[in-house]
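Whiteboard transcription, Tuesday session. T.W. wrote the C-alpha cells on the left side:
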C-alpha cells in the first residue's frame, strides 16, 4: 500500500488523537497509526484529573530520597526495579539534578499555564463536538490523615497561592461538609477550586470520532515497525498495513516513543512509570469531585456511576504486569480515607505506563536531528490534562503558526548532550 498523506501520527492516545483533531480541523491530511485500539495505552484507565492546582513538577526537593526510603516497602506508592540500565541511571541523575527549589519555581507556572489552557480546550471541545464524557468542573479535594501530612498541605497551599492557583486549606469538618463520605479520621484537606475530572476513554473516543468527521484517517490494529531515513529526513514508515511516505511525522507513542526515537538517533530521556487503577461499577456512595489521598498518593475519581481509584509509580521498564500487593494497598487506602468505600466483586484492574521525562516536562517540538519529526510525548503524570493543548501546539508547529504558549521548556533535545 502506498500512502502519501501530509502528516502521519504514531499513537492513538490522548496526545495523538488531540493532534489528529486539530490538524484535520485545519484541513491537513492526517493518518493516525495505532497498534491496538484507540485509547488503549496510558490514556485509557488513568485517574481522569484535569488539575492546574497540581502543577508542581515531579522532581522537587527530597522526592528521590523519600522514594529510595520506600524501596524496600512492597506496598509503597513508589518503586524502582534495581537494574544496571544506563538509560535509567542517566534519567535518575537528571531527575535528581532538577530536584531543587529553583526548578520548582521555573516549572510550576509552565505546567499551570499548559493545564489552564488545556482545561479551556476540554470545555470548548466537549461543547462543540458534543462529547459525552462525564466531565465535571467541580474542583478537587486533597485529604490528610496525619498532622505531618496536613502540615505539608499547609506549606503546599502557601507556595501554590504564590503562583496564583486557587486553593484553600480546610479543617476536617469543612472537608466533610463538602464531601460527606470522607472518613472521621481525616484531620484536614485542600480544596483545589480550579480543577476538573473526566472519563478519559470516553473523551478520547469522542475526539477521535470528531477528527474523522474532519477527514482524519485512523488505522487501528496497525503497528509502526520501522522508519527509513534519507539524510536528516524520514522518507518511509513501515507498518503492518504497508508503507507510508508522509511529509511530516508526529511521534506520540507514549511510553513506547523512546525505542522509536532511539532508532532515529533522537536523544531524549524518558522512562515508563507504571501505575494502576481499579474501577468499581455503580459504587454506592460517590464523591462530587476527585479526591487525592495525601499520604497514600492515591486519586479517587467519580466517573458517571463508576468510581476509579488510582496510584503508584513504578520504574520497572516497559512492563505492564500487575503487582497485586500494590493494588491491594491502593484499595486499602480507599478504606482509610473514605467511610463508605467498598470494592465490588468484579472491579476492573488496569495498569498503564506514564511516559515520563527526566524533568517531568513534556517534549513538544521538532527534533533537530530529523527535521520532519515532531515529538509530542513525556507528559508524565499530567498527560491527560495537557492532552488537548499539546494537540493544538502540534498543529501550530505543523502550520508554522506562532504557538499559543512558549515551547522553550519542551525542547526535544534538551538532554541530548
Ligand atoms: C495510574 C495512572 C493515573 C494517571 N492519572 C492521570 C491523571 O489523573 N491526569 C493526567 O493528566 N494524567 C494522568 N496519568 C498520565 C496519563 O495517563 C498519560 O500521561 C497520558 O495518557 C499519555 O498519553 P499518550 O497519548 O502520550 O500515551 P498513550 O495513551 O500511552 O498512547 C500511546 C499510544 O501509542 C501506541 N503505540 C505505541 N507504539 C506504537 C507503534 N509502534 N505503532 C503504533 N502505535 C503505537 C500505543 O498502543 C498507545 O495507544 C495517569 C497515568 C497512570 C498510569
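and on the right, the sequence the group agreed on:
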Amino acid at each position: 500500500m502506498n500512502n502519501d498523506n501530509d502528516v502521519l501520527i504514531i499513537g492513538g492516545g490522548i496526545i495523538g488523537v488531540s493532534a489528529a483533531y486539530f490538524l484535520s480541523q485545519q484541513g491537513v491530511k492526517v493518518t493516525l497509526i495505532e497498534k491496538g485500539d484507540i485509547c488503549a495505552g496510558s490514556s485509557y484507565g488513568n485517574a481522569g484529573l484535569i488539575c492546574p492546582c497540581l502543577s508542581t513538577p515531579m522532581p522537587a526537593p527530597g522526592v528521590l530520597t523519600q522514594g529510595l526510603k520506600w524501596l524496600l516497602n512492597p506496598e509503597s506508592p513508589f518503586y524502582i526495579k534495581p537494574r544496571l540500565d544506563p538509560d535509567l541511571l542517566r534519567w535518575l541523575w537528571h531527575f535528581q539534578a532538577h530536584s531543587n527549589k529553583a526548578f520548582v519555581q521555573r516549572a510550576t507556572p509552565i505546567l499551570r499555564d499548559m493545564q489552564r489552557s488545556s482545561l479551556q480546550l476540554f470545555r470548548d471541545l466537549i461543547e462543540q463536538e458534543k462529547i459525552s464524557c462525564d466531565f465535571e468542573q467541580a474542583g478537587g479535594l486533597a485529604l490528610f490523615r496525619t498532622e505531618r501530612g496536613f502540615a505539608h498541605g499547609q506549606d503546599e497551599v502557601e507556595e501554590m497561592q504564590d503562583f496564583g492557583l486557587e486553593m484553600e486549606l480546610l479543617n476536617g469538618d469543612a472537608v466533610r461538609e463538602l464531601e460527606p463520605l470522607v472518613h472521621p479520621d481525616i484531620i484536614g484537606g485542600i480544596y483545589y477550586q480550579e480543577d476538573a475530572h473526566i472519563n478519559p476513554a470516553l473523551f478520547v473516543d469522542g475526539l477521535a470520532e470528531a477528527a474523522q468527521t474532519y477527514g482524519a484517517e485512523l488505522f487501528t490494529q496497525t503497528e509502526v515497525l520501522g522508519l527509513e531515513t534519507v539524510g536528516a529526513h524520514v522518507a518511509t514508515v513501515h507498518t503492518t498495513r504497508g508503507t507510508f511516505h508522509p511529509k511530516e511525522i508526529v511521534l506520540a507513542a507514549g511510553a513506547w516513543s523512546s525505542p522509536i526515537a532511539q532508532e532515529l538517533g533522537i536523544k531524549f530521556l524518558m522512562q515508563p512509570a507504571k501505575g494502576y487503577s481499579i474501577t468499581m461499577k455503580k459504587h454506592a456512595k460517590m464523591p462530587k469531585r476527585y479526591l487525592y489521598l495525601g499520604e497514600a498518593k492515591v486519586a479517587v475519581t467519580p466517573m458517571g456511576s463508576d468510581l476509579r481509584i488510582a496510584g503508584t509509580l513504578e520504574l520497572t521498564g516497559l512492563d505492564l504486569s500487575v503487582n497485586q500487593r500494590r493494588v491491594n494497598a491502593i484499595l486499602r487506602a480507599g478504606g482509610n480515607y473514605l467511610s463508605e468505600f467498598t470494592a465490588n466483586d468484579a472491579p476492573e484492574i488496569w495498569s498503564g505506563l506514564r511516559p515520563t521525562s527526566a524533568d517531568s516536562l513534556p517534549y513538544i517540538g521538532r527534533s533537530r536531528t530529523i527535521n520532519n519529526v515532531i515529538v509530542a510525548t513525556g507528559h508524565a503524570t499530567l498527560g491527560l490534562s495537557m492532552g488537548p493543548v499539546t494537540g493544538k501546539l502540534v498543529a501550530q508547529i505543523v502550520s508554522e503558526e506562532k504557538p499559543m504558549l512558549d515551547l522553550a521548556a519542551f525542547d526535544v533535545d534538551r538532554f541530548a548532550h
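Someone added at the bottom: The chain has two domains: 2-43+202-264+360-410, 55-99+135-195+270-357.
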